Amino acid sequence: MKTKIENKNKTNWMKNFLIVVALLLVGFCLPLALTGCGQKEKMRNLYAIDAVFDDETKTLECSQEVEYVNTTDNALSEVCFFLYANSFAEWQKVVSDAYFDRAYPTKKQNFGGIEISSAKVNKMAANFEVSEQGNILTVKLGTSLFPNEKVEIVLEYVVKLANIRHRLGYGNNTINFGNFFPIACVYENGFVKNDFSAYGDPFYSEIADFDVKIDFPQQFSLASTGTILEVTESENERKVAVCKAGKVRDFCFVLCDHFEKKTQIVDGVEVNYFFYDDELWEKHLKTAADAVATFSDLFGAYPYAQLSVVKSDFCFGGMEYPNLVLIADDLNSEDVDYVIAHEVAHQWWYGVVGNNQFEDAWVDEGLTEFSTALFFEKNSDYGIEYEKIMEGATANYKNFLRIFKEIYDNFDESIDRDINSFRTEPEYVNHTYTKGMLMFDSLRKMLGDRKFFKVLKAYYEDFAFENSSSEKLVQNFSKHSHINLEKFFDAWLQGKVVFG
Predict the structure, then answer these.
(1) Which of 300, 328, 348 is the last residue of a domain?
(2) Span 75-102, mean pLDDT?
């Protein structure tokens, strides 16, 4: 017969044991918070890129090894990659006429592109072809790749940069490497092969892992997606940076020979601001940090260790990449905070929750523009009122409709269409950004704040590290609001809502 002291000791031991087990489980589950504790993660492609930049020729020579996983239900005989770098080729138009002078520093059009020199599959030379438009690379596997099987694909190529203030190109201050590498096309009943576009973001990709080594002249500093593990200097006046990024859908880096860098930690996230010629850097770093904190609270935690806001040569206001956003260096001072907030919001709507930005641009742009308005509502010290944003957007959209209906007969007011179906850039912007934002504001008023923000958080959680779509968003919002929202969205997306 055990004494009371023995029983008490046993009870205490069991309590301590259960506490240790609970802590271990919490530690294990934290990285899986957005995918579910213990839930098996979807297999991801791994990109290992070895890149060498020549500043004199403005070329990037690359060797790229892709561990490609067949996550489809079909056997594959080939794998398709999108060559976004060829949107800067001579036969393409990468900016609209309205942005021509702002895009080209010399006011003269020049060109870039990517040239694939070889492909190997499992260390054996492979046949490949590039489409006539230059947008799709198809690598023949030589044998069937069955579901859940992996294949090693090695590509050798050279990227030629255009002298253009764009996502891929160089200006007077920075050299931007956005969408420089061949990236696997998403598979949906076949590989999705979007067209190029002179405006908007014609991108679509799956979550993947990246190991990237970048060799560049030593006078430059580097900002990149993911974590820069180390930077070493070689004897030939060059640097070699080793970067690693996990569970991201793209990889971007920027070089500059006069970057300054400042950092602020918010909710355990290292928020960096890379800049030059900015007396208001403290304010802009604070905006980025405030945006991370605000959106983490509204939608769900930012799931990465760092985020870099990078001032750069860029002809549009800003551009989003995983863990890194570009902010144009020629913005009016009053616009910088707005652009930073918008691009940081894209880390949630594009970065974590993906979508086909060519086919369903409103899914990320409309929600991101609306999130930007929410940022200023929740941070009144910036002096920009939420209601004023919505009033201004409504007035702007009405003016846009009045003017364009005078120009075009049977003017199409629908949102739910691909980028190239919009005849002009103003038409694209006013529909996907402005009208998209007004649609989410209308939904918020209809559902009420409590239900609306519950729906947004559930949407973020359900599609974290996955791809959404117009149809999936409507279904998910209906599910979590317990209201059939198909007619609501149909009215807005198909242009049936009347603006008096």
Answers:
(1) 348
(2) 96
- Cα(73)–Cα(50) distance, integer angstroms: 32
Exposed, middle or buried by CB within 10 Å (0-12, 13-18, 19+), for 117?
A: exposed
Percent of the chain at pLDDT > 70 equals: 92
38 located within any domain: no
Nearest to 168 by CA among 251, 244, 108, 231: 251
Statement to judge: residues 340 and 403 lie in one domain: no
Q: How far apart are CA 364 and CA 351, in angstroms?
A: 10
| Contact in structure between 367 and 436 (CB atoms under 8 Å) | yes
Q: Mind listing the pLDDT tens digit for each residue in 310-359? A: 999 999 999 999 999 999 999 999 999 999 999 999 999 999 999 999 99
Bigger pLDDT: 218 vs 34: 218
426 within some domain: yes
User: Cα torsion at 468, 469, 472, 474 (round to 10°)?
Assistant: 120
CA atoms of 250 and 248, how far apart (whole Å): 6
274 and 414 both lie in a single domain: no
At 124, list the tokens: 């054996």
Q: Is the pLDDT of residue 101 over 50?
A: yes
- Per-residue pLDDT at 34: 59
> Structural domain of residue 331, as residue ranges?
260-348
Query: How many separate domains does the chain show?
Result: 3
Q: CA-CA distance, 418 to 405, in Å (whole number)?
A: 20
Please state, in angstroms and as integers, the Cα–Cα distance from residue 378 to each residue in 208, 257, 317, 436, following that order. Answer: 33, 37, 23, 20
**Do 319 and 200 belong together in one domain?**
no
Residue 29 reports pLDDT greater than 90: no
User: How much of the chain exceeds pLDDT 90, in percent?
Assistant: 90
Same domain (yes/no): 341, 444 = no
Range 244-271 average pLDDT: 98
Q: Helices 436-447 and 449-463: crossing angle, nearest 10°?
A: 120
Structural domain ending residue among the three candidates 206, 231, 249? 206
Phi/psi-derived region of residue 168, left when phi > 0, alpha when psi is between -120 and 50, beta in every other case: beta
